[in-house]
Amino acid sequence: MRITRFETKILDKQEKRLKGLDGLAMLLVDVDYDGKIFDMDRTVFAKDIADNSMIKMTVLTESVAVIAIDKHGSESKVFII
Known about the structure:
This protein has 81 residues and is mainly beta. It has one domain. It has no helices and 4 strands. A hairpin with an 8-residue loop joins strand 3 and strand 4. It is globular. The N and C termini lie close together (9 Å).
């Protein structure tokens, strides 16, 4: 799985918006999302994401959903991969 885009409203000390994965804290992953209830199966911390934005995962199904959480604790809506 590769992260292609992440945006946050968090500002750095120079009051510029953090870019790329700098504001990302973690991803919550549901490997078999049923379309209704998000049931977290895995947590991927930002420090564990490779420099090329790749995340190695096994046992994925056709319906994977992710919630991104920024460093201030704000959650994204559920998005389906």
